[in-house]
Amino acid sequence: MTRVGLEPIIRAHPLFAGLDEAFCQLVCGCATNVRFRACDYLFHEGEAADRLFLLRQGRVALETPTPGQGAIVFRTLDAGELVGLSWLVPPYRWAYDARALEPVRAIAMDAVCLRRKCEQDHDLGFEVMKRVVPILIERLHGTQRQMLDVYGSPS
Amino acid sequence: MAARPDRAPPGDPLTPRVVRVLKRRRDAPRTVTLDIAADDATAFQPGQFNMLTAFGVGEVPISLSGDPADTNRRVHTIRAVGPVSSALARLAPGDALGLRGPFGSGWPMAAAHGHDVVLIAGGLGLAPLRPALYRLLAERQRYGTIALLYGTRSPDEILFRRELAAWQRRHDIRIGVTVDHAPSDWTGHVGVVTRLIPGLALDPANTLAFVCGPEVMMRFTIAALKEAGLGDAAIHLSLERNMKCAVGLCGHCQFGPVFVCRDGPVLCHDRLGGLLGLKEL
Ligand SMILES: Cc1cc2nc3c(=O)[nH]c(=O)nc-3n(C[C@H](O)[C@H](O)[C@H](O)COP(=O)(O)OP(=O)(O)OC[C@H]3O[C@@H](n4cnc5c(N)ncnc54)[C@H](O)[C@@H]3O)c2cc1C
Ligand code: FES
Protein backbone atom coordinates (compact mmCIF):
# COMPACT_ATOMS: atom_id res chain seq x y z
CA MET A 1 0.00 0.00 0.00
CA THR A 2 1.33 3.48 -0.85
CA ARG A 3 1.90 6.08 1.84
CA VAL A 4 -0.90 8.11 0.22
CA GLY A 5 -3.19 5.12 0.68
CA LEU A 6 -2.22 4.96 4.35
CA GLU A 7 -3.28 8.51 5.11
CA PRO A 8 -7.03 7.85 5.51
CA ILE A 9 -6.26 4.80 7.65
CA ILE A 10 -3.96 6.77 9.93
CA ARG A 11 -6.47 9.60 10.16
CA ALA A 12 -9.18 7.11 11.10
CA HIS A 13 -7.10 5.62 13.92
CA PRO A 14 -8.02 7.09 17.34
CA LEU A 15 -4.38 8.00 18.04
CA PHE A 16 -4.16 10.39 15.11
CA ALA A 17 -7.82 11.31 14.53
CA GLY A 18 -8.23 15.03 13.85
CA LEU A 19 -4.51 15.57 13.29
CA ASP A 20 -3.59 18.72 11.35
CA GLU A 21 -3.04 18.06 7.61
CA ALA A 22 0.66 19.03 7.60
CA PHE A 23 1.40 16.91 10.70
CA CYS A 24 -0.47 14.00 9.18
CA GLN A 25 1.80 14.14 6.12
CA LEU A 26 4.85 14.03 8.38
CA VAL A 27 3.49 11.11 10.40
CA CYS A 28 2.45 9.20 7.26
CA GLY A 29 6.01 9.48 6.00
CA CYS A 30 7.05 7.14 8.84
CA ALA A 31 4.28 4.57 8.32
CA THR A 32 3.95 1.19 6.64
CA ASN A 33 1.18 -1.35 6.51
CA VAL A 34 1.91 -4.66 8.28
CA ARG A 35 0.21 -7.98 8.96
CA PHE A 36 0.90 -10.72 11.48
CA ARG A 37 -0.44 -14.24 11.72
CA ALA A 38 -1.86 -15.56 14.99
CA CYS A 39 1.05 -16.46 17.33
CA ASP A 40 3.52 -14.18 15.49
CA TYR A 41 5.45 -11.83 17.76
CA LEU A 42 5.31 -8.11 17.02
CA PHE A 43 8.39 -7.70 19.21
CA HIS A 44 10.31 -9.30 22.05
CA GLU A 45 11.47 -8.04 25.44
CA GLY A 46 14.96 -6.50 25.26
CA GLU A 47 14.92 -5.77 21.50
CA ALA A 48 15.29 -2.24 20.17
CA ALA A 49 11.96 -0.40 20.38
CA ASP A 50 12.19 0.97 16.88
CA ARG A 51 8.53 0.68 15.86
CA LEU A 52 5.08 1.34 17.22
CA PHE A 53 1.90 -0.24 15.94
CA LEU A 54 -1.54 1.26 15.39
CA LEU A 55 -3.83 -1.76 15.59
CA ARG A 56 -6.45 -1.94 12.86
CA GLN A 57 -7.70 -5.47 13.38
CA GLY A 58 -7.02 -8.39 15.71
CA ARG A 59 -5.98 -8.78 19.34
CA VAL A 60 -2.44 -8.57 20.70
CA ALA A 61 -1.25 -9.94 24.05
CA LEU A 62 1.43 -8.16 26.06
CA GLU A 63 3.23 -10.80 28.06
CA THR A 64 6.22 -11.54 30.15
CA PRO A 65 7.90 -14.93 30.37
CA THR A 66 8.09 -16.25 33.93
CA PRO A 67 10.29 -19.13 35.03
CA GLY A 68 8.32 -22.34 35.40
CA GLN A 69 4.97 -20.78 34.48
CA GLY A 70 5.34 -19.93 30.81
CA ALA A 71 4.31 -16.46 29.73
CA ILE A 72 1.90 -14.38 31.79
CA VAL A 73 -0.36 -12.07 29.81
CA PHE A 74 -0.90 -8.80 31.68
CA ARG A 75 -2.77 -6.85 29.02
CA THR A 76 -4.46 -7.35 25.69
CA LEU A 77 -4.94 -4.67 23.06
CA ASP A 78 -7.58 -4.51 20.33
CA ALA A 79 -8.33 -2.60 17.14
CA GLY A 80 -7.98 1.16 17.63
CA GLU A 81 -5.27 0.80 20.28
CA LEU A 82 -1.55 1.49 20.26
CA VAL A 83 0.94 -1.33 20.74
CA GLY A 84 4.27 -0.24 22.16
CA LEU A 85 5.28 2.73 24.30
CA SER A 86 8.97 2.06 24.98
CA TRP A 87 9.99 3.77 21.71
CA LEU A 88 9.21 7.09 23.44
CA VAL A 89 12.00 7.19 25.98
CA PRO A 90 15.61 5.97 26.19
CA PRO A 91 16.95 3.33 26.18
CA TYR A 92 14.29 2.53 23.52
CA ARG A 93 14.06 -1.17 24.41
CA TRP A 94 10.90 -3.28 24.70
CA ALA A 95 10.06 -4.22 28.27
CA TYR A 96 7.80 -7.18 27.34
CA ASP A 97 6.77 -9.39 24.43
CA ALA A 98 3.85 -8.57 22.13
CA ARG A 99 2.16 -11.55 20.48
CA ALA A 100 -0.71 -11.66 17.98
CA LEU A 101 -3.59 -13.74 19.38
CA GLU A 102 -5.43 -13.55 16.07
CA PRO A 103 -4.52 -12.42 12.55
CA VAL A 104 -3.49 -8.79 13.03
CA ARG A 105 -3.47 -5.85 10.64
CA ALA A 106 -1.67 -2.73 11.80
CA ILE A 107 0.12 0.41 10.74
CA ALA A 108 3.75 0.20 11.83
CA MET A 109 5.45 3.52 12.47
CA ASP A 110 9.20 3.80 12.23
CA ALA A 111 9.94 5.14 15.72
CA VAL A 112 13.32 6.56 14.78
CA CYS A 113 11.69 8.52 11.94
CA LEU A 114 8.85 9.73 14.18
CA ARG A 115 11.20 10.74 16.99
CA ARG A 116 13.39 12.65 14.53
CA LYS A 117 10.41 14.53 13.09
CA CYS A 118 9.12 15.33 16.58
CA GLU A 119 12.58 16.65 17.52
CA GLN A 120 12.73 18.81 14.40
CA ASP A 121 9.21 20.17 14.80
CA HIS A 122 8.30 20.61 18.44
CA ASP A 123 4.71 21.46 17.58
CA LEU A 124 4.40 18.01 16.05
CA GLY A 125 6.27 16.58 19.04
CA PHE A 126 3.84 18.23 21.47
CA GLU A 127 0.87 16.98 19.45
CA VAL A 128 2.20 13.42 19.51
CA MET A 129 2.93 13.66 23.24
CA LYS A 130 -0.59 14.95 23.97
CA ARG A 131 -1.97 11.88 22.25
CA VAL A 132 0.40 9.30 23.70
CA VAL A 133 0.59 10.47 27.33
CA PRO A 134 -3.11 9.78 28.11
CA ILE A 135 -2.59 6.23 26.82
CA LEU A 136 0.46 5.90 29.04
CA ILE A 137 -1.51 7.13 32.07
CA GLU A 138 -4.45 4.84 31.31
CA ARG A 139 -2.08 1.84 31.10
CA LEU A 140 -0.37 2.90 34.33
CA HIS A 141 -3.69 3.20 36.18
CA GLY A 142 -4.90 -0.10 34.76
CA THR A 143 -1.72 -1.85 35.85
CA GLN A 144 -1.96 -0.32 39.35
CA ARG A 145 -5.52 -1.64 39.69
CA GLN A 146 -4.56 -5.08 38.46
CA MET A 147 -1.70 -5.13 40.97
CA LEU A 148 -4.12 -4.38 43.82
CA ASP A 149 -5.46 -7.88 43.19
CA VAL A 150 -8.92 -6.81 44.36
CA TYR A 151 -10.50 -10.13 43.39
CA GLY A 152 -7.91 -12.18 45.22
CA SER A 153 -8.94 -14.42 48.11
CA PRO A 154 -7.61 -13.37 51.52
CA SER A 155 -4.94 -15.88 52.49
CA MET B 1 -34.63 3.65 44.42
CA ALA B 2 -33.64 0.08 45.03
CA ALA B 3 -36.64 -2.26 45.13
CA ARG B 4 -37.99 -3.34 48.54
CA PRO B 5 -39.02 -6.91 49.27
CA ASP B 6 -42.71 -7.58 48.61
CA ARG B 7 -43.16 -9.23 51.97
CA ALA B 8 -41.25 -9.98 55.14
CA PRO B 9 -39.52 -13.34 55.43
CA PRO B 10 -41.82 -16.01 56.87
CA GLY B 11 -41.89 -16.79 60.59
CA ASP B 12 -39.44 -15.26 63.00
CA PRO B 13 -36.79 -13.46 60.92
CA LEU B 14 -34.23 -13.96 63.68
CA THR B 15 -34.56 -17.76 63.92
CA PRO B 16 -32.84 -19.88 61.27
CA ARG B 17 -34.88 -22.63 59.62
CA VAL B 18 -33.12 -25.96 59.10
CA VAL B 19 -32.68 -26.75 55.40
CA ARG B 20 -30.63 -29.29 53.43
CA VAL B 21 -28.16 -29.16 50.59
CA LEU B 22 -29.43 -30.74 47.38
CA LYS B 23 -26.40 -30.27 45.20
CA ARG B 24 -22.87 -28.86 45.37
CA ARG B 25 -20.79 -27.66 42.43
CA ARG B 26 -17.24 -26.35 42.48
CA ASP B 27 -17.16 -23.13 40.47
CA ALA B 28 -13.63 -21.86 41.02
CA PRO B 29 -10.80 -22.37 43.51
CA ARG B 30 -12.33 -22.10 47.01
CA THR B 31 -15.73 -21.27 45.52
CA VAL B 32 -18.74 -23.57 45.40
CA THR B 33 -22.40 -23.20 44.50
CA LEU B 34 -24.92 -24.93 46.76
CA ASP B 35 -28.47 -25.73 45.74
CA ILE B 36 -30.50 -25.79 48.93
CA ALA B 37 -33.99 -27.30 49.15
CA ALA B 38 -36.49 -24.46 49.55
CA ASP B 39 -38.61 -24.88 52.68
CA ASP B 40 -41.27 -22.46 51.44
CA ALA B 41 -42.34 -20.77 48.23
CA THR B 42 -41.26 -17.26 49.27
CA ALA B 43 -40.17 -15.39 46.19
CA PHE B 44 -36.92 -13.49 46.43
CA GLN B 45 -35.81 -10.49 44.48
CA PRO B 46 -32.57 -10.46 42.50
CA GLY B 47 -29.94 -8.87 44.74
CA GLN B 48 -31.33 -10.10 48.06
CA PHE B 49 -29.38 -12.27 50.49
CA ASN B 50 -29.99 -14.98 53.09
CA MET B 51 -28.25 -15.49 56.42
CA LEU B 52 -26.75 -18.99 56.31
CA THR B 53 -25.65 -20.86 59.43
CA ALA B 54 -22.95 -23.49 59.53
CA PHE B 55 -24.04 -25.22 62.75
CA GLY B 56 -21.50 -24.91 65.52
CA VAL B 57 -19.46 -22.36 63.56
CA GLY B 58 -21.51 -19.27 62.83
CA GLU B 59 -23.80 -17.34 60.55
CA VAL B 60 -22.97 -15.13 57.53
CA PRO B 61 -24.86 -13.19 54.86
CA ILE B 62 -24.72 -14.80 51.40
CA SER B 63 -26.45 -13.49 48.28
CA LEU B 64 -28.94 -15.55 46.35
CA SER B 65 -27.32 -16.45 43.04
CA GLY B 66 -30.00 -18.62 41.40
CA ASP B 67 -33.05 -18.04 39.27
CA PRO B 68 -35.85 -16.31 41.24
CA ALA B 69 -38.38 -18.25 39.14
CA ASP B 70 -37.14 -21.56 40.59
CA THR B 71 -39.09 -21.83 43.83
CA ASN B 72 -37.84 -25.35 44.61
CA ARG B 73 -34.33 -24.38 45.54
CA ARG B 74 -32.27 -21.54 46.95
CA VAL B 75 -28.92 -21.22 45.21
CA HIS B 76 -25.89 -19.66 46.90
CA THR B 77 -22.36 -19.24 45.60
CA ILE B 78 -19.87 -19.23 48.46
CA ARG B 79 -16.20 -18.45 48.58
CA ALA B 80 -14.31 -19.94 51.51
CA VAL B 81 -12.49 -17.01 53.13
CA GLY B 82 -12.82 -17.75 56.85
CA PRO B 83 -14.36 -20.16 59.35
CA VAL B 84 -18.05 -19.82 58.49
CA SER B 85 -17.78 -19.53 54.72
CA SER B 86 -15.30 -22.44 54.70
CA ALA B 87 -17.67 -24.63 56.73
CA LEU B 88 -20.54 -23.77 54.39
CA ALA B 89 -18.39 -24.44 51.33
CA ARG B 90 -17.56 -27.91 52.70
CA LEU B 91 -21.23 -28.97 52.98
CA ALA B 92 -22.23 -31.94 50.85
CA PRO B 93 -25.61 -33.04 49.47
CA GLY B 94 -27.88 -34.08 52.35
CA ASP B 95 -26.08 -31.93 54.94
CA ALA B 96 -28.12 -29.53 57.07
CA LEU B 97 -27.60 -25.82 57.53
CA GLY B 98 -29.57 -22.91 58.92
CA LEU B 99 -31.22 -20.31 56.73
CA ARG B 100 -33.12 -17.12 57.38
CA GLY B 101 -34.22 -14.60 54.81
CA PRO B 102 -34.50 -13.40 52.14
CA PHE B 103 -33.42 -9.98 53.34
CA GLY B 104 -32.65 -6.58 51.96
CA SER B 105 -33.32 -4.63 48.81
CA GLY B 106 -33.04 -5.97 45.27
CA TRP B 107 -31.88 -4.64 41.94
CA PRO B 108 -34.42 -2.17 40.52
CA MET B 109 -35.81 -4.53 37.88
CA ALA B 110 -39.11 -2.69 37.38
CA ALA B 111 -37.48 0.74 37.22
CA ALA B 112 -35.29 -0.63 34.44
CA HIS B 113 -38.25 -1.47 32.17
CA GLY B 114 -37.78 0.32 28.86
CA HIS B 115 -34.14 1.11 29.61
CA ASP B 116 -30.82 -0.27 28.50
CA VAL B 117 -29.21 -2.18 31.35
CA VAL B 118 -25.53 -2.80 31.91
CA LEU B 119 -24.45 -5.23 34.64
CA ILE B 120 -20.85 -4.86 35.79
CA ALA B 121 -19.49 -7.61 37.99
CA GLY B 122 -16.14 -8.03 39.67
CA GLY B 123 -15.03 -11.43 40.95
CA LEU B 124 -17.64 -13.03 43.20
CA GLY B 125 -19.88 -10.01 42.45
CA LEU B 126 -21.25 -11.98 39.52
CA ALA B 127 -23.21 -14.15 41.98
CA PRO B 128 -25.65 -11.44 43.21
CA LEU B 129 -26.05 -10.18 39.64
CA ARG B 130 -26.91 -13.54 38.12
CA PRO B 131 -30.54 -13.53 39.36
CA ALA B 132 -30.98 -10.08 37.77
CA LEU B 133 -29.67 -11.43 34.48
CA TYR B 134 -32.08 -14.39 34.65
CA ARG B 135 -34.97 -11.93 35.07
CA LEU B 136 -33.74 -9.60 32.33
CA LEU B 137 -33.52 -12.51 29.90
CA ALA B 138 -36.85 -14.00 31.01
CA GLU B 139 -38.54 -10.69 30.24
CA ARG B 140 -36.22 -9.70 27.42
CA GLN B 141 -38.82 -7.63 25.55
CA ARG B 142 -39.27 -5.27 28.49
CA TYR B 143 -35.70 -3.96 28.25
CA GLY B 144 -33.51 -2.20 25.70
CA THR B 145 -29.97 -3.43 25.13
CA ILE B 146 -28.53 -5.64 27.85
CA ALA B 147 -24.83 -6.04 28.54
CA LEU B 148 -22.83 -7.91 31.15
CA LEU B 149 -19.22 -6.93 31.79
CA TYR B 150 -17.33 -9.25 34.08
CA GLY B 151 -13.84 -8.82 35.42
CA THR B 152 -12.06 -11.35 37.54
CA ARG B 153 -8.60 -12.36 38.60
CA SER B 154 -7.62 -15.07 36.11
CA PRO B 155 -9.33 -17.50 33.72
CA ASP B 156 -9.53 -20.31 36.31
CA GLU B 157 -11.54 -18.00 38.62
CA ILE B 158 -14.29 -17.34 36.09
CA LEU B 159 -17.65 -18.26 37.62
CA PHE B 160 -20.58 -19.90 35.86
CA ARG B 161 -18.43 -20.70 32.83
CA ARG B 162 -20.95 -22.78 30.92
CA GLU B 163 -23.71 -20.22 31.35
CA LEU B 164 -21.39 -17.39 30.35
CA ALA B 165 -20.54 -19.29 27.17
CA ALA B 166 -24.26 -19.81 26.47
CA TRP B 167 -25.00 -16.12 27.04
CA GLN B 168 -22.11 -15.22 24.75
CA ARG B 169 -23.78 -17.20 21.96
CA ARG B 170 -27.02 -15.20 22.28
CA HIS B 171 -27.56 -12.20 20.02
CA ASP B 172 -29.72 -10.23 22.42
CA ILE B 173 -27.09 -9.62 25.10
CA ARG B 174 -23.52 -8.39 24.99
CA ILE B 175 -21.04 -10.16 27.20
CA GLY B 176 -17.53 -8.92 27.94
CA VAL B 177 -15.18 -10.93 30.12
CA THR B 178 -11.74 -9.75 31.19
CA VAL B 179 -9.14 -11.00 33.64
CA ASP B 180 -6.29 -9.30 35.50
CA HIS B 181 -3.70 -11.76 34.21
CA ALA B 182 -3.74 -14.95 32.19
CA PRO B 183 -1.60 -17.80 30.93
CA SER B 184 -0.58 -17.57 27.29
CA ASP B 185 -3.33 -19.88 25.98
CA TRP B 186 -6.06 -17.38 26.99
CA THR B 187 -7.32 -15.45 23.96
CA GLY B 188 -9.86 -13.23 25.73
CA HIS B 189 -9.37 -9.76 27.20
CA VAL B 190 -6.75 -9.02 29.85
CA GLY B 191 -7.08 -5.72 31.71
CA VAL B 192 -9.43 -3.98 34.10
CA VAL B 193 -13.18 -4.32 33.60
CA THR B 194 -13.70 -0.57 33.12
CA ARG B 195 -11.81 -0.79 29.82
CA LEU B 196 -14.77 -2.63 28.35
CA ILE B 197 -17.21 0.22 29.07
CA PRO B 198 -16.33 2.53 26.13
CA GLY B 199 -16.90 -0.32 23.66
CA LEU B 200 -20.56 -0.48 24.73
CA ALA B 201 -21.22 3.11 23.53
CA LEU B 202 -23.80 3.51 26.31
CA ASP B 203 -26.74 5.86 25.87
CA PRO B 204 -26.35 7.73 29.18
CA ALA B 205 -29.88 9.14 29.11
CA ASN B 206 -31.44 5.70 28.89
CA THR B 207 -29.10 3.34 30.74
CA LEU B 208 -29.19 1.87 34.24
CA ALA B 209 -26.06 0.26 35.62
CA PHE B 210 -26.04 -2.53 38.25
CA VAL B 211 -22.58 -2.90 39.77
CA CYS B 212 -21.31 -5.52 42.20
CA GLY B 213 -17.78 -6.39 43.23
CA PRO B 214 -15.04 -5.45 45.67
CA GLU B 215 -15.41 -1.86 46.80
CA VAL B 216 -12.24 -0.68 45.04
CA MET B 217 -13.50 -2.09 41.77
CA MET B 218 -16.90 -0.42 42.29
CA ARG B 219 -15.25 2.96 42.88
CA PHE B 220 -13.33 2.78 39.61
CA THR B 221 -16.42 1.52 37.82
CA ILE B 222 -18.55 4.41 39.10
CA ALA B 223 -15.91 6.86 37.85
CA ALA B 224 -15.87 5.19 34.43
CA LEU B 225 -19.67 5.15 34.21
CA LYS B 226 -19.80 8.82 35.10
CA GLU B 227 -17.21 9.51 32.43
CA ALA B 228 -19.56 7.72 30.02
CA GLY B 229 -22.25 10.22 31.05
CA LEU B 230 -24.35 8.26 33.57
CA GLY B 231 -25.72 10.19 36.53
CA ASP B 232 -25.62 9.01 40.15
CA ALA B 233 -29.30 8.08 39.99
CA ALA B 234 -28.61 5.61 37.17
CA ILE B 235 -25.94 3.68 39.07
CA HIS B 236 -26.98 0.95 41.52
CA LEU B 237 -24.51 -0.89 43.72
CA SER B 238 -24.56 -3.88 46.01
CA LEU B 239 -22.67 -3.19 49.23
CA GLU B 240 -21.13 -5.59 51.74
CA ARG B 241 -20.80 -4.93 55.43
CA ASN B 242 -20.45 -7.27 58.39
CA MET B 243 -23.88 -8.31 59.61
CA LYS B 244 -25.47 -9.83 62.67
CA CYS B 245 -29.25 -9.42 62.83
CA ALA B 246 -29.89 -8.63 59.11
CA VAL B 247 -33.16 -6.90 60.02
CA GLY B 248 -32.06 -3.41 60.99
CA LEU B 249 -31.87 -3.94 64.77
CA CYS B 250 -28.24 -4.22 65.83
CA GLY B 251 -26.50 -1.52 63.80
CA HIS B 252 -23.62 -3.82 62.87
CA CYS B 253 -23.92 -3.06 59.17
CA GLN B 254 -24.28 0.70 59.46
CA PHE B 255 -22.64 2.62 56.64
CA GLY B 256 -23.07 6.36 57.13
CA PRO B 257 -26.81 7.02 57.08
CA VAL B 258 -27.80 3.54 55.87
CA PHE B 259 -28.14 0.10 57.40
CA VAL B 260 -26.86 -2.14 54.62
CA CYS B 261 -29.03 -5.11 55.72
CA ARG B 262 -32.27 -3.16 55.68
CA ASP B 263 -31.76 -0.25 53.24
CA GLY B 264 -29.39 -2.26 51.03
CA PRO B 265 -27.49 -4.25 50.04
CA VAL B 266 -28.58 -2.76 46.70
CA LEU B 267 -28.45 1.01 46.90
CA CYS B 268 -28.61 3.78 44.37
CA HIS B 269 -25.34 5.68 44.22
CA ASP B 270 -27.15 8.99 44.75
CA ARG B 271 -27.93 7.82 48.32
CA LEU B 272 -24.30 7.19 49.12
CA GLY B 273 -22.80 10.52 48.09
CA GLY B 274 -19.05 10.29 48.45
CA LEU B 275 -19.14 7.65 51.22
CA LEU B 276 -17.75 4.83 49.12
CA GLY B 277 -14.30 6.36 48.82
CA LEU B 278 -13.81 7.10 52.54
CA LYS B 279 -11.23 5.10 54.48
CA GLU B 280 -13.11 5.20 57.78
CA LEU B 281 -16.62 6.19 58.73
C1 LIG C 1 -25.08 -8.63 51.66
C2 LIG C 1 -23.90 -9.57 51.57
C3 LIG C 1 -23.89 -10.54 50.60
C4 LIG C 1 -22.81 -11.42 50.50
N1 LIG C 1 -22.83 -12.37 49.53
C5 LIG C 1 -21.85 -13.28 49.48
C6 LIG C 1 -21.89 -14.33 48.52
O1 LIG C 1 -22.81 -14.44 47.71
N2 LIG C 1 -20.88 -15.23 48.54
C7 LIG C 1 -19.84 -15.15 49.43
O2 LIG C 1 -18.95 -16.01 49.40
N3 LIG C 1 -19.75 -14.14 50.31
C8 LIG C 1 -20.74 -13.22 50.36
N4 LIG C 1 -20.68 -12.23 51.29
C9 LIG C 1 -19.49 -12.15 52.15
C10 LIG C 1 -19.60 -13.15 53.28
O3 LIG C 1 -20.64 -12.80 54.10
C11 LIG C 1 -18.24 -13.15 54.03
O4 LIG C 1 -17.27 -13.72 53.21
C12 LIG C 1 -18.36 -13.95 55.29
O5 LIG C 1 -19.13 -13.22 56.21
C13 LIG C 1 -16.99 -14.26 55.87
O6 LIG C 1 -17.18 -14.93 57.08
P1 LIG C 1 -16.13 -16.01 57.58
O7 LIG C 1 -16.45 -16.37 58.98
O8 LIG C 1 -16.05 -17.13 56.63
O9 LIG C 1 -14.78 -15.24 57.52
P2 LIG C 1 -14.24 -14.09 58.51
O10 LIG C 1 -13.47 -14.70 59.62
O11 LIG C 1 -15.34 -13.13 58.83
O12 LIG C 1 -13.23 -13.41 57.49
C14 LIG C 1 -12.06 -14.13 57.07
C15 LIG C 1 -11.24 -13.26 56.22
O13 LIG C 1 -11.98 -12.92 55.04
C16 LIG C 1 -12.08 -11.51 54.90
N5 LIG C 1 -13.41 -11.26 54.37
C17 LIG C 1 -14.57 -11.22 55.05
N6 LIG C 1 -15.56 -10.93 54.22
C18 LIG C 1 -15.03 -10.81 52.99
C19 LIG C 1 -15.54 -10.50 51.71
N7 LIG C 1 -16.82 -10.23 51.52
N8 LIG C 1 -14.68 -10.46 50.66
C20 LIG C 1 -13.37 -10.70 50.82
N9 LIG C 1 -12.84 -10.96 52.02
C21 LIG C 1 -13.64 -11.02 53.08
C22 LIG C 1 -11.90 -10.96 56.28
O14 LIG C 1 -11.38 -9.65 56.24
C23 LIG C 1 -10.87 -11.92 56.85
O15 LIG C 1 -9.57 -11.60 56.41
C24 LIG C 1 -21.72 -11.31 51.40
C25 LIG C 1 -21.73 -10.32 52.38
C26 LIG C 1 -22.80 -9.45 52.45
C27 LIG C 1 -22.80 -8.40 53.50
S1 FES D 1 -27.03 -6.37 60.61
FE1 FES D 1 -28.07 -5.62 62.33
S2 FES D 1 -28.69 -3.69 61.66
FE2 FES D 1 -27.87 -4.55 59.87
Q: What is the radius of gyration of chain A computed over CA atoms, rounded to a whole number of angstroms?
A: 16 Å
SS-based structural class of chain B?
Answer: alpha/beta
Residue-averaged pLDDT of chain B: 93
- Annotated CATH architecture of the largest domain in chain B: 3-Layer(aba) Sandwich
Number of helices of chain B: 6
What's the main sheet of chain B like? 7 strands, mixed
Average residue-wise pLDDT of chain A: 93
Q: How far from one another are the termini of chain A?
A: 55 Å
Please describe the topology of this protein.
The complex is a heterodimer of chains A (155) and B (281).
Chain A: H1 3-12, H2 21-28, E1 31-36, E2 41-43, E3 51-57, E4 60-66, E5 70-77, E6 82-83, E7 97-100, E8 104-110, H3 111-120, H4 122-148
Antiparallel strand pairs in A: 1-8, 2-7, 3-6, 3-8, 4-5, 4-7
Helix pairs in contact in A: 3-4
Chain B: E1 17-28, E2 31-37, E3 49-54, E4 58-63, E5 73-79, H1 83-89, E6 96-103, E7 116-122, H2 126-138, E8 146-152, H3 161-169, E9 174-179, E10 182-183, E11 189-190, E12 207-212, H4 215-227, E13 235-238, E14 254-255, E15 258-259, H5 260-263, E16 266-268, H6 269-272
Parallel strand pairs in B: 7-8, 7-12, 8-9, 9-11, 12-13
Antiparallel strand pairs in B: 1-2, 1-6, 2-5, 3-4, 3-6, 13-16, 14-15
Bound molecules: flavin-adenine dinucleotide and FE2/S2 (inorganic) cluster.
